[in-house]
Amino acid sequence: MTLPSENALMAKAARRAAGSQPGPRERLLAMAQGRRDLVNLGRGDPDLPTPPHILEAAKRALDDGATHYTHWQGRADLREAIAEKCRRDYGLAVHPDQVVLTAGAQEAVYTAFQTLLDPGDEVLLADPHYTSYSRAIRLAGGVPVAVPCTEARAFVVDPADVEARVSPRTKLLVVVTPENPTGAVIPPEAIAALADIALRHDLLVIADDIYERFVYEGPPHMSVASAPGLSDRTIMINGFSKTYAMTGWRIGYMVVPRPLVAAVEVIKHTLTICAPAVSQAAALAALTGPQDCVEDMRRTYAHRRRVLLDGFEPLGLGGRWSRGALYVYARVPSGGLGAYEFCVTLLEQAGVLAFPGTAFGSSDGYIRTTLLQPEETLKEAVSRMAALLQATAQGRTRSHRSPSRDSRMDGV
């Protein structure tokens, strides 16, 4: 029996999957693997532990037999707790039967686009953005339409630029605040303008509020779902990974307009049947238990953000526009390198892992660094970056001066 060659097997992969090749993040993570001296400012995985009361709830749940399927939408008591959160935080009349628990917010993103998009439907989203969005849109047959965000506007999407890209094929508007990778926080007046665009053009909306609890300065968080008239056309996406340091628990949720729940079931049930039962028990404890742990995390991240800003600003890297989420979106230093090339140099010569802006869309000239290391580790990262930049600058100076020395020697 002849086994197919590697190329022959690859040729049999569906085009929608085979066309999604590893990007800059994946390549840098592979390069970083096994480095003992690594300072990791790459992945958005909180280093802080899941709070103890959540762990204890999960242990009790396992002892009580939380090892089986739940209802496909999730436990009734957890869905009620999420509905209550939406009523309390956003003033929305959410019913528990609108809530769907997912295996992380990422499953909610994928499910939403598979539910809503037909081939050729266009989706408006900020650029740069978390690229699982654009990938999920393409996998659903949709067309991501990027709306460029610039440093001049603190990377906040401009509603006028959004409206300029509305076409007869536009079906969805994605609003993420605070944003990944830039840390941009959309102010209330821009949220209102985006809501007005959605209403006037009859657009559906994805409201991603996964970083809602982590705003450090500037305007407070406001979900676009809370704008008047928008709740009946909006799928809200949120989760527990960031707020409660529960990335590995894989538990998120979506709040769906009632008429769309049956359509969501087709996709969600096919993917995972239900969210993990033990993680649902942990999520219930997270929502209904003490919340001082969340504020403690926010204060820790706020302090770490200040450490990075204080270190980056003298180096010309900036980053003050990153007012929320878990990131500082810094400039690539002048010197002729693109963002990816700079990140490779930073990894190879300084042992610091960061991701280029080009890993999040078309934003060259910037890198994403995280707040997810202890203060001393962040200071070490800044120190290594400063040493690299100083050595690079000295190398450029020597290179610039050497022709004149050669010329003097020729003259002798």
Element layout with pairings:
Elements: H1 6-11, H2 15-18, H3 24-32, E1 39-40, H4 52-63, H5 76-90, E2 99-102, H6 105-116, E3 122-127, H7 132-139, E4 143-148, H8 159-164, E5 170-176, H9 188-200, E6 204-208, E7 234-239, E8 252-255, H10 261-272, H11 277-288, H12 292-312, E9 327-331, H13 339-350, E10 352-353, E11 355-356, E12 366-370, H14 375-411
Parallel strand pairs: 1-10, 3-4, 3-5, 5-6, 6-7
Antiparallel strand pairs: 2-8, 7-8, 9-12, 11-12
Textual characterization of the structure:
- Helices cover 43% and strands 13% of the residues.
- With 412 residues, it is an alpha/beta fold.
- It folds into 2 domains: 7-49 and 292-391, Aspartate Aminotransferase, domain 1, CATH 3.90.1150; 68-288, Type I PLP-dependent aspartate aminotransferase-like (Major domain) (Aspartate Aminotransferase, domain 2).
- The strands form 3 sheets. A 7-stranded mixed beta sheet has the order 2-8-7-6-5-3-4, sandwiched between helices.
- β5, α9 (188-200) and β6 (204-208) form a beta-alpha-beta unit.
- α4 packs across α11 and α5 runs parallel beside α11 (277-288).
- The relative contact order is 0.15.
- Mean pLDDT is 93; it is low at 399-412.
Concise synopsis of the structure shown:
With 412 residues, the chain is an alpha/beta fold. Helices cover 43% and strands 13% of the residues.
Q: Descriptors for this entry?
A:
412 residues; alpha/beta; Aspartate Aminotransferase, domain 1; Aspartate Aminotransferase, domain 2; 2 domains; seven-stranded mixed beta sheet; three-stranded antiparallel beta sheet; 14 helices; 43% helix; 13% strand; globular
